[in-house]
Amino acid sequence: MKKKVQVIIFAVIFFGIxxxxxxxPDKEYSEAERRLLAKMPQISLESIVDGSFxxxxxxxxxxxxxxxxxxxxxxxxxEYKVFGKKDNNDLYEAxxxxxxxxxxxxxxxxxNATDKFGSIYENLIAGTASEDKxxxxxxxxxxxxMAEASGRPVIDYEQMFSQVKExxxxxxxxxxxxxxxxxxxxxxxxxxxxxxxxxxxxxxGQAMGLESAGKADRLEQVEAKPDFRGVYYGQSAxxxxxxxxxxxxxxxxxxxxxxxxxxxxxxxxxxxxxLNGKDPYDVYLSGPTPLLTIENPAAETDRQLVIFRDxxxxxxxxxxxxxxxxxxxxxxxxxQSGFLGQFIEFDGQDVLFIYGTTILNDSSLLK
Amino acid sequence: MLLVMVATIIFSWVVxxxxxxxxxxxxxxxxxxxxxxxxxxxxxxxxESFADAFGVEGLAMNIALPAGISFYTFQTLSYTIDLGRGxxxxxxxLLDFAMYVALFPQLIAGPIVVYSDxxxxxDARLRKTTWDMAYExxxxxxxxxxxxxxLANNLALFVNDFQALAExxxxxxxxxxxxxxxxxxxxxxxxxxxxxxxxxxxxFGFTFPENFNYPFIAKNISEFWRRWHMTxxxxxxxxxxxxxxxxxxxxxxxxxxxxxxxGLTGFWHGANWTFLAWGLYFGIFLLLEKFxxxxxxxxxxxxxxxxxTVIVVxxxxxxxxxxxxxxAFGYIGSMVGLGSLPLYNQITDYYLMSYGILFxxxxxxxxxxxxxxxxxxxxxxxxxxxxxxxATAYLVDGSFNPFLYFRx
Lengths: 367, 408
Hints:
The structure holds two protein chains of two kinds. Chain A is of the alpha/beta class. Chain A is about 35% helix and about 20% strand. Chain B is built from 17 helices and no strands. Classes of the chains: A alpha/beta, B mainly alpha. At the A-B interface, helix 1, helix 3 and helix 4 of A face helix 7, helix 15 and helix 17 of B.
C-alpha cells in the first residue's frame, strides 16, 4: 500500500512536469541568458532522417523547460556547494564577483589581433600626420585582480602586455593596470564601471596630452538604473544581488551628438532607452556598433580622436569628448578593417587602440 | 536506419518459424544477421584498412551506423541459435518478437537480453506489473539517471578538458586523474544506462538481466569481467566460447579460444584496431592469471588483487579511449613517467581541487559501501525524487550530454 502511494506521488511529479512543459507557452527570449530560446523545429521526413529534427527538439525541450532559470540555479549551486567545483561552465564566483576563466594564454590569438591592428596602421595611418599619435592600451579582465587570489588558473598577463608592446612598436603603450582594481568592475558583468575609471582616463589623458580627462569635479554622477544585473548574472545562474548602474555627465557630454553609421541616425551619448533593452550597458553609446562618431559642438579645439575598441570603449569615450571636437569609434568585430579607408581619413587625429584581454586572447571575431 | 531493424526483425522471425523443421536455416539466419552487422558496422573500417595497407587512394565507404545494431543483432542471434539448439520454441507472434528485439529501454545501450531470459514475459497476458515492481523500477531508473547525468557527464567534462590541454600543461598526476576519470565515466555512463533500462523494464513488468555488479571491487580480471557488462560476457561465453570447446580442450586450442573470444569482444565495441587490441589485452591477462598471477595474488593478499585489477583496467581504458594504438602507448608512457612531464603542476592542482569531491563521490559510488547503510532504504523515495530533479537541473543547464554507446 505504501509503495502504491509512493509510485503515484512519483508519477504525479513526473507527469506533472512533463505536462507543464507541454502546455506552458513558449518563451521567445531568456532575460537571464540574454539569448533567443530555441523554438519547436519543423517536422518533416527529411528532418527526421537527417537527425536535425531530433537535435532541434532536444534544444527546444531544454530551452523551454518549465522553471528553466530555477533549475539552472539549482545545478550551479550544487556544483559549487556540494561538489566544491571551482567553476561552473567556466564562470566562477569569489568575493561577490563573478568572472570568467581566461585561460590558457593564446599567443597566436594576440598576434592575430596585433596583425589586424598592424595592417590598419600600415594601410591607413603610416605616413600621415597621425603616424606619431598612435597609442595602445590593454584593459585587464576581472581575472587580473581576482583569479590568482581565488585559486583559479591565470594567464601570464605581463607576457600578454609585453607581446602587445613588441608587436605594436609603432604605438605608445599606456599601462592602466594600476589604475583599476576589482571594485572598478560590476559584480555580475565583465565591464568596468564608468564611475570608477576616472583614474584610467587621467592616465590616458596624461599620455595623450589632454586637459580635462579624469577630472571628477567636472562630472556629475547619475543613477541610470538601480538594479543592474550583468551578463554573468544569467550565465552563472547564481543568486547574486543587483547593483546600480551610473553614468557620468556634464553639459559638454549632454550637448555632444553621436552619429551611428549602421543605423544612419543621430543620437545622444547616453541612450536611456538602452537601459530597458537586452543589456542595460547599452546605455553607453547605444551598445555595440561598427562605426560611430561623437561630435562636440562646444569644443574649444579641433583635435580629433579615433578609437579602435571593444565594448569597454563605450563607457570610456564619453569621458574623453571634452578634449576633442570629434571622436570616431571603430569596432572591427563588426566591420571589415579593409573597408575603413572608405569612412575615415587619417590626417592628424590621435589614434587609440584599446582592447580587453578577453578579446585579445580570443581574437577570432576581429575582422 | 529503422528499416534495418524492421528487416532484421521480419527476417529472423520468418526464418525462426522454420528452424525447428529445417535446422540448416540456423546457419543461414546467423550468416545474414552477422552479414548485416559487418556491413553496417565494420565495412567502412575494413575498406579503409585495406586502402591503408595497400596504399589505394580515394577508397572509402561511409556507412551510417544504425543505433543499437550491435545490441539487437546479438539478441536475434541468441534467438536463432537457441532455436537451432532446440532450447526454445519459435515465437508465433510477430508483434511479440518485434517487441523483444526493439524493446526501447535497452535497445540502444543494453543489457543484452537473450530470448530465453524474457520468453515468458513477452506475452502481455503472462506479464504482470505489481506496485512493488513499479516502485523498484522507478527507484532504479532514478539511480541510473543520476549516475549518467550527474556523475558520468561531469567526469566527461574533466576528460574533455584534459584532452584540450596542451602537452606542456599536463603532468603525470593529471594523466592518472584522466585515466581514472575516464574509467569511472565509462562505468557510470554504461551502468547508468543499464540501470535505467532495467528500471523502465520493471515498470512495464519485464525483468531484464543485471549488467554490472561493482566491477571495480574485483580481485582479478576474470572476476572483473564477471561483474562488468555481464550480459555481453555471458553472450560470448554461451554462443562463442563454449561452442568452440571452452576450456575442455588441449592447451593450445584453449589459448586460441581465449584470444578468439576476447578479440571478438574487443571488436564488438567498435570498428577500430584499438578495440581489437583492447579485447586481446584482456585475453592476455586472463591467460596470465590462470598461469601464475592468481597464485601470486593469493600469496600477496586481497589488497594486491584490488590494486592489480584497478591498474590493469585503468590502463585498458586509456587504450579504449585512444584514437590509435600509438596514442595509447603515448598516454601510458606519460602515466609511467616516460614523458618529460612534471609530476604535478599548478593546473593539476586546480583541476584536482575543482573535481576532488566529485572524484571521491565516484570512488564511493564504484563500491557497494552505501548499500551497507540500512537507513538509506527508508529514504529511497526521497532520493529518487531528488535525483530526478537534480538530473533535470543538469540536463536543462547543459547541452553537454555525449552519448558514448552509439558507436557500439
